[in-house]
Design brief:
This protein is α+β, with helices and mostly antiparallel strands. The longest helix has 21 residues.
Length: 160
């Protein structure tokens, strides 16, 4: 489960900007085109030419399909900083009330200390924060069979 970041950006119009950068995918496609054209420019044996051309075609296809998996970068416009996503997982020893308290008091260092390395833990907190701590967005999720569902309210704090 994830915070509906698109809805959050829409509701806070003018505070966030989301964009996808396809630079890496384009670079892979261009590299694939260059590698595919090498057999035409050089006199490789037939088998070597087929291998090189096939590698180029695979690079082109890989670059094309990678465009579907590009993640958005979200920028907090008042400070022009990127929001960094972090997930904290908590075992049953940490109560839901303690997690909610840490979110409301912005005790991210405490969350880091108490967080489990187990990605299948029953509680999860998803946070988006800027490096200068000028913007923080958090939400608590609890695992119910087959998925995480939001437990607490969405916490959003801006310092301008």
């Amino acid at each position: 489960m994830d915070i509906n970041i698109d809805r959050l950006i829409e509701e806070n119009n003018g505070k966030f900007k989301a964009k996808k950068s396809p630079v890496l995918a384009i670079a892979i496609i261009v590299a694939g085109l260059i590698v595919s054209y090498i057999p035409v420019l050089t006199e490789l044996s037939k088998n070597s030419g087929i291998i090189v051309a096939s590698t180029g075609i695979l690079l082109i296809l890989g670059g094309f399909f990678s465009t579907f998996f590009i993640k958005s970068t979200i920028t907090y416009l008042p400070t022009n900083e990127k929001l960094k996503r972090k997930e904290y997982f908590f075992d049953q020893q940490v109560s839901a009330e303690a997690i909610e308290r840490m979110i409301k008091t912005e005790a991210f260092e405490e969350m880091e200390k108490l967080a489990s390395k187990n990605p299948n833990a029953p509680h999860m907190v998803v946070s988006y924060r800027t490096a200068s701590k000028s913007c923080a967005i958090c939400q608590h999720f609890k695992f119910v069979p087959y998925q995480y569902e939001a437990v607490g309210d969405l916490f959003v704090r801006f310092k301008e």
